Amino acid sequence: MSSSVIAQLRSQSSSVNLSALQQRDASVSRVLFTAKHVVLYHLDHAQAWQRQDIEGPLFIVERRTKPFYQLVILNRKSMTDWRQPLTTAMASAIETQDKSARRRQT
């Protein structure tokens, strides 16, 4: 396949994803990142991972209203999607963990 055909397919896929997200949340203005399939786990009090009944494509979206950024899993297991606002505190924690991981690797 030529690169122009691949680019056109990606563009169509992005457009379909944005439409699906906007049907569920009209405030979604843009898709920033996509993962084809994820499964959500919860770390319980005994420090054991428990699989949740939530799986499907993951999106990081930009919204017109607060929260302006959000993680969204379009749940294939039920009609209830999973949403998590992305906050400044979360971004700082991720950045701190990333810097720590880089220091350990060197």
Commentary on this structure:
The chain is an alpha+beta fold and 106 residues long. The chain has one domain: Roll (PH-domain like). Helix content is 38%, strand content 38%. It has a 4-stranded antiparallel beta sheet with strand order 1-2-3-4. Strand 1 (28-43) and strand 2 (49-63) form a beta hairpin. The longest helix is centred in the first third of the chain and has 22 residues, at 3-24. It is globular and about 40 Å long. The protein starts with a helix and ends with a helix.
Secondary structure layout plus pairing:
Layout: H1 3-24, E1 28-43, E2 49-63, E3 69-73, E4 82-85, H2 88-105
Antiparallel strand pairs: 1-2, 2-3, 3-4
Mean pLDDT: 85
Q: How big is the Rg? A: 17 Å
- The level of helicity is 25-40%
Which secondary-structure class do the elements indicate?
alpha+beta
- Measure the end-to-end span: 40 Å
Could you give the count of β-strands?
Answer: 4
What is the name of the CATH topology?
PH-domain like
Largest sheet: 4 strands, antiparallel
* Uncertain spans: none
Helices and strands, in N-to-C order? HEEEEH
For this structure, what is the CATH homologous superfamily? Pleckstrin-homology domain (PH domain)/Phosphotyrosine-binding domain (PTB)
- Please identify, by name, the CATH architecture: Roll
Strand order of the largest sheet: 1-2-3-4
Oligomer: single chain
Q: Bin the strand percentage.
A: 35-45%
CATH hierarchy, class: Mainly Beta
| General form | globular
Continuous helix count: 2
Total domain count: 1
